[in-house]
Amino acid sequence: MPVIIIVSVVVLGFLAVWLGFVPPPHATTLIRIRDGSILVRRGRVQPHAKEHIADILRDAGVSSGYIAITPENWVAFSRRIPAQIHQRLRNVLLNQWA
Predict the structure, then answer these.
(1) Which residues of 41-61 are buried (b: 16+ CB within 10 A; e: fewer)?
(2) How many domains, the chain?
(3) Per-residue pLDDT averaged across 23-50, rounded?
(4) pTM: predicted TM-score of the whole model, two decimal places
(5) Are strands 64-69 and 37-42 parallel, antiparallel or unpaired?
(6) Binning pLDDT at 50, 70 and 90, where does residue 44 land?
(7) 9-23, 35-49, 67-81: which range is least confident on average?
(8) Contacts for 31 with CB less than 8 Å, ≥ 6 apart
(9) For the chain, what is the mean pLDDT?
(10) Domain of 70?
(11) Local confidence band at 98 (pLDDT 50, 70, 90 cut-offs)
């Protein structure tokens, strides 16, 4: 019985991350969006990239959510960020150091 509970908790945690309710716990970069402001909570983001991200989110009407980057360069978005702008944000974030 305890094994079923542990497996259930792990599956629920995985689904919460996969569906965009919570950021991945192993993210190296975590960007929070609150009231339209961008706050870098973990990792580093270049100032020009941060401004570009803010513009993209503002144009899309996003006022809250998160963007997380894992060590494997997988970019995770909260459910509040529309899928139509995911690729633009990925491009800005993953190419900011180039």
Answers:
(1) eeeebeeebbebbeebbeeee
(2) 1
(3) 93
(4) 0.83
(5) unpaired
(6) very high
(7) 9-23
(8) 38, 39, 40, 41, 45, 53, 66, 67, 68
(9) 90
(10) 2-94
(11) low
Alpha helices in the chain (DSSP H): 2-18, 47-60, 86-94
Q: What whole-number distance in Å separates Cα of residue 27 and Cα of residue 66? A: 11
Please name the residue that has the structure tokens 């570009």.
52
Which position has the token pair 């909570």?
Answer: 41
Distance CA 28, CA 15 (A): 20
Q: How far apart are CA 45 and CA 68, in angstroms?
A: 11
| Bridge partners for 34 per DSSP | 37, 64
91, 67 Cβ separation under 8 angstroms: no
CA 19 vs CA 44, 45, 50, 80, 91: distances in Å: 25, 24, 24, 11, 21
